[in-house]
Amino acid sequence: MELSHFIAGARVAGKSGRFGDVFDPATGTVRARAPLASSDEITTAVAAAKSAFPAWATTTPLRRARVMFRFKELVERNGDEVAALISAEHGKVADDARGSLQRGLEVVEFACGIPHLLKGEYAGEVGTNVDSYSMRVPLGVCVGITPFNFPAMVPLWMFPIAIAAGNTFILKPSEKTPSTALRLAELAFEAGLPAGVLNVVNGGRDAVEALVDHPDVAAVSFVGSTPVAEAVWQRGTRASKRVQALGGAKNHLVVMPDADMGQAVDALMGSGFGSAGERCMAVSVAVAVGTAGDALVERLAKKLPSLRVGPASDSAAEMGPLITAEHRAKVEGYIETGVREGAKLVVDGRGLRLQGYEKGFFLGPSLFDHVTPEMAIWRDEIFGPVLSVVRAPDLARATAIVNGHPFGNGAAILTRDGGAARAFVDRVEAGMVGVNVPIPVPMAYMSFGGWKRSLFGDHHVHGLEGVRFYTRLKTVTARWPDRLSGPEFMMPTMR
């Protein structure tokens, strides 16, 4: 099957002659080919978005909100189809696919309130017969560059708010999982978006660079690895564009001795191995404090072999395959590195082969103990089903370990001690913090984003931060004099 782009309200066949393979990770077979956009195709998409912007920007916020309401209803009605596309190209199990779609739809719900969210401020009589007010206005053509692991959720974190705020949008999804974005664009067009307001172009690095460099693009939102996030941020800001670039993560879960160990194990199982660890909010490091370490590792070692790995078609599966054979080999390389560096490999997930799915990109869960901050498996973002346990004598040292990592995306603590939780929240250096919540993904009306090398730029994603990112402030000072006065040569003052 040959996929397409979506430009100016219609699917458009690729013209570059270059394609990328889209795999079914469960079977290891190619299910489709995605066209890789040329610079001319990027130019066509930007031109379509630029042409649509003036009319869409002057459409009332209420009418734009009504399109979002219809879009939400259409996505819900076609939710099973969209979730199936997610599973088919990413490999995540069906419940996980549906859950990620729901988290994206929550941002659409938030965007439905855009008339309220765009309200400015008003101050009357700031001077004699002078009033002042502010308004938030759209930027123009905005671009979203999204990762393979959340083909619906992350795009839905971006374009609904951007479009509801009056911008037009070009979405460049991962070339590994492009079908979901194309279907979402069709549903948005069916909901009433004018042609050109939302466009989808497929491609790789060349497409990203062409979009970031294009002079008619006003803003770029990116989610991916830290090296690419930093490159996009530097490239975009050098061109005076507004950029938010979310990078990598190494999320830590601190387990205190007073935590319920059964609950801790369940929390680590779900947060560490859900979606095969291919989440920016996955817990990849458990910091066991004091006496918690031995009990935690012992229970994990007993329970991990029971984790059911399988394709999305298996309704009982709890973890699916990795995205590609190359990525699986990379994760296996980290397991080898951890052993070589001296960490204790308690559970080895390598060598897993499922009957009937021998060519699938499956990898079982792996567990390391006695990991230290000097090791690559602690330092690097593995992005796979590998959990490392680090030992710490007390909360102060545990917090220092978390803060010592160059990433600061998410962190969490499991404890029954309110004082310990409060101290951790106050001192941990991360953008999203959980207290007895292992995956602290904020709700749509809050904002998602990390600190340090997990985020480049000033704005987090969705919530009011998203509205601020996709708009700029205009402040008006107005006076309606009864008669014109002569020229004034001093700095104007209010009196």
Describe this structure in words.
The chain is of the alpha/beta class and 495 residues long. It folds into 2 domains: 5-247 and 454-476, Aldehyde Dehydrogenase, Chain A, domain 1; 251-435, Aldehyde Dehydrogenase, Chain A, domain 2 (3-Layer(aba) Sandwich). It contains 16 helices and 22 strands. The protein starts with a strand and ends in a 16-residue tail after the last strand. The model has no long low-confidence stretch (mean pLDDT 96).
Shape: globular
Backbone CA Rg = 24 Å
User: Major sheet, described briefly?
Assistant: 7 strands, mixed
Strand order of the largest sheet: 14-15-16-13-12-18-19
Number of domain units? 2
Q: Which structural class best describes the helix and strand composition?
A: alpha/beta
Mean pLDDT: 96
- Note the total helix count: 16
Please summarize what this structure is:
The protein is an alpha/beta fold and 495 residues long. Helix content is 38%, strand content 22%. A seven-stranded mixed sheet has the order 14-15-16-13-12-18-19, with helices on both faces. A six-stranded mixed sheet has the order 9-8-7-10-11-21, with helices on both faces.
Main features:
495 residues, alpha/beta, globular, 2 domains, Aldehyde Dehydrogenase, Chain A, domain 1, Aldehyde Dehydrogenase, Chain A, domain 2, seven-stranded mixed β-sheet, 16 helices
